[in-house]
Design a protein that fits this description.
single chain, 5-stranded antiparallel beta sheet, 5 strands, globular
């Protein structure tokens, strides 16, 4: 289900540097290539280690709402990670940048 949601959602965001392979979204960023697992949301840099990105589960902050698609917060988390790493040159968080 998440694979279908991701494949139909990415064109709406104008994202062209993401492909789907099996259970992974493969993101080709400017700082590296990343594999995001569609089940767990874990992120691995290709040829490297896991990148720790923890979601903020505040009530109205940091959420992407996906009405009519899926009410599962994990899906929203995975799509937000895909969007973040698709434009990795715009990442400002020092803890994430140290891992790249």
């Amino acid at each position: 289900m998440r694979r279908a949601i991701v494949s139909h959602t990415l064109p709406m965001f104008g994202i062209s540097n993401v492909s789907l392979a099996g259970n992974f979204a493969k993101v080709s960023g400017q700082l590296g290539c990343y594999n995001i697992h569609l089940g767990s949301g874990t992120i691995h840099k290709e040829g490297g280690t896991q990148i720790a990105v923890l979601p903020v589960h505040a009530q109205n902050r940091g959420r992407i709402f996906l009405p009519f698609l899926d009410e599962d917060p994990k899906t929203a988390e995975i799509i937000s990670k895909i969007l973040l790493f698709a434009d990795d040159s715009g990442i400002k968080d020092p803890s994430i940048l140290n891992q790249l």
